[in-house]
């Protein structure tokens, strides 16, 4: 008999008729079907201490999620489902939030783009270095220096990176798998609940909607000798629901919505707001995401655009997204206090 993952894909149609699961059932599902990372409590304490420290200094804290999740198909994982996200949006947004006075918890996919190093990610390290005195000098001094022609902006980036490190303004936390992402996001939400409305959640990661529960996953590498592979995957619990209602109910929460079909995008963004009752959705289409997004709230809709001229002037759309959201966060905090 074939194991259950060889049955045909049925989750999409089933999920349409399923009601939103109750919060407690999501908590149960997380514990039962998604392996808990061994360091989750330690990371939670680190995040809570970070939030306390910056709150005492009068700083707001934003939790940014960034990059794509990895969904294993086997428990001794050889193969997994992944997605396109580079982490650029999360990494660049982290820099703009810090420039706007926030402290940032950067929950990101291992090896995705990282604040301050992101612009150098495509450069081969050995092309960026040279021997002092030029090529012929290699055997003499052996002293290695940066090739400023390859890395013209390195000094500026290094200076800013060191200032941020000195000010303890960036707390990087890594995930790879969907399970790690879900448990660490829950831990982050609980850790930030102590600072109430001064916490912002900026959920830019591209998170899988489908997974194979641990109990149904084959242990060993799936064998091609069994014939064509048909996968049946479960729906990932909608973690935004307990995050907004339970774990961080005072916080300012922004989700992101990505579609490839522009005609359904705004409708889906509004539906997400209706369902989860959070503060805003940043809606974007895959191909145009670097130049156009819409920030949707219950009463407003703001189109943010970066033109070719802006790009020549090194303006990035994340600067505009962050500016829009930090203003909205200000208003939110004032309203909550009043
Ligand atoms: O990581 P990136 O810069 O390549 O892309 C950013 C993005 C498109 C993943 C983000 O803007 C986004 O829409 N995240 C949510 C994706 C989703 O709906 O699942």
Describe the fold and architecture:
With 338 residues, the chain is an alpha/beta fold. It has a single domain, classed as Rossmann fold (3-Layer(aba) Sandwich), CATH 3.40.50. The protein has ten helices and 14 strands. The protein has helices at residues 11-17, 23-33, 40-56, 88-99, 154-166, 178-192, 240-247, 262-276, 308-312, 317-337; strands at 61-66, 71-72, 80-81, 103-109, 129-131, 144-146, 170-175, 199-203, 210-211, 234-235, 252-259, 280-285, 292-296, 301-305. An eight-stranded mixed beta sheet has the order 7-4-1-8-11-12-13-14, with helices on both faces. A two-stranded antiparallel ribbon has the order 2-3. Helix 8 links the parallel strand 11 and strand 12. It binds ligand PAZ. Ligand PAZ binds at residues 85-89, 204, 206-207, 256-258, 284, 289.
Report the count of strand segments.
14
CATH homologous superfamily (4th level) name: CoaB-like
Listed once per kind, the bound small molecules are:
ligand PAZ
How many domains make up the 3D coordinates? Answer: 1
Q: What are the segments in which pLDDT stays under 50 over at least 5 consecutive residues? A: 1-18
**What's the rounded overall pLDDT mean?**
92
* CATH fold-level name: Rossmann fold
Distance between the termini: 63 Å
Strand content: 15-25%
Structural class category: alpha/beta
Q: In what order do the strands lie side by side in the largest sheet?
A: 7-4-1-8-11-12-13-14
């Amino acid at each position: 008999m074939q194991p259950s993952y060889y049955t045909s894909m049925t989750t999409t149609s089933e999920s349409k008729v399923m009601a939103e699961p109750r919060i407690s059932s999501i908590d149960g599902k997380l514990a039962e079907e998604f392996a808990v990372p061994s360091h989750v409590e330690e990371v939670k304490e680190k995040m809570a201490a970070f939030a306390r420290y910056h709150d005492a200094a009068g700083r707001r804290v934003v939790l940014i999620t960034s990059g794509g999740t990895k969904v294993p198909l086997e428990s001794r994982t050889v193969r997994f489902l992944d997605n396109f996200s580079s982490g650029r949006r999360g990494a660049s947004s982290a820099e703009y939030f810090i420039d706007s006075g926030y402290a940032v918890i950067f929950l990101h996919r291992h090896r995705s783009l990282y604040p301050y190093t992101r612009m150098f990610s495509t450069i081969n390290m050995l092309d960026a270095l040279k021997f002092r005195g030029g090529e012929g000098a290699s055997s003499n001094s052996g002293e290695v220096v940066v090739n400023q022609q390859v890395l013209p902006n390195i000094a500026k980036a290094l200076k800013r990176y060191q200032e941020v490190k000195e000010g303890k303004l960036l707390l990087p936390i890594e995930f790879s798998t969907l399970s790690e992402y879900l448990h660490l996001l829950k831990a982050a939400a609980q850790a930030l609940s102590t600072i109430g409305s001064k916490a912002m959640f900026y959920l830019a990661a591209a998170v899988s909607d489908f997974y194979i529960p641990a109990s149904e996953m084959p242990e060993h590498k799936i064998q091609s000798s069994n014939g064509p592979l048909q996968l049946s995957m479960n729906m990932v619990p909608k973690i935004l629901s307990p995050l907004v209602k339970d774990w961080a109910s005072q916080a300012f929460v922004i989700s992101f919505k990505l579609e490839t079909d522009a005609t359904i995008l705004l409708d889906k963004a509004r539906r997400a707001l209706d369902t989860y009752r959070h503060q805003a959705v940043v809606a974007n289409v895959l191909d145009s995401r670097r130049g156009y997004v819409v920030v949707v709230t219950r009463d407003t809709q703001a189109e943010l655009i970066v033109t070719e001229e802006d790009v020549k002037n090194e303006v990035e759309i994340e600067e505009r997204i962050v500016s829009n959201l930090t203003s909205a966060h200000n208003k939110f905090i004032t309203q909550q206090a009043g």
